[in-house]
Amino acid sequence: MPTVLETHIQNRFRVQPNHANNNDTLHGGNLMKWLDEVGAMSAMRFAGETCVTARVNELDFERPIGIGDTALVEAFVYDAGRTSVHVGLRAWREEPRSGEMERTTESSFTFVAIDEDGSAVPVPELTVESDRGRELQARMLEVEDNS
Ligand SMILES: CCCCCCCCCCCCCCCC(=O)SCCNC(=O)CCNC(=O)[C@H](O)C(C)(C)COP(=O)(O)OP(=O)(O)OC[C@H]1O[C@@H](n2cnc3c(N)ncnc32)[C@H](O)[C@@H]1OP(=O)(O)O
Question: What Rg value do the Cα atoms of the chain yield, rounded?
Answer without folding.
Answer: 16
